[in-house]
Amino acid sequence: MKNRLINFLAIALIALSISSCGPKVSDEFKGKISEFENQWTSASTQRASLIETVQREIESNSMMHGIMVAKFDSLKASDPKQKKLNNELLTDLEGKMNNCKVHGENYNEISNLLNNGGTNWDATTAAFAALKSKIGKDEVEQAEAEKELELHQQALASGLSELEQLKTKFESIKASCAETCSAFDQTIKDLK
Question: Residue 1: pLDDT band by 50, 70, 90 thresholds?
Fold first, then answer.
């Protein structure tokens, strides 16, 4: 009887060890991990590109504002008795210069949101890398990995939504900025 019990336990242990030797995460789920990684990389690239574009516009806007101020000051100096310039025209030009300055502030706001916004890109990237490493080392059960992936997918959806909103806001500011600069330049040309 004792031998039967020992044989039964040995067979049970062998069966248990064989069934637990396989990977904890299915190949199908690993495919989902790979798909998410591609999506996250693409979104991160879009974010980095928008950060660079906004930074260029911040620099360009600062330069344009400086040029506007220089043109305005030169115009005022060339007409000290205000033969061409009246208060209404001066106020209009000053308003356009102020709009240009506000556009720069709006670009800075977008830059800050991209760098410090609701989606913590660096933390999500690090957490996903840790999950991928645990899967590669077979240190995580699929159920736990699925929960983590779901959180990362939520971060991706949130991040893409934020990016789209910021792109839309950026394009609106850029169009308004171009219109303001063009109107300012046209007013200066008309005075010459």
Answer: low
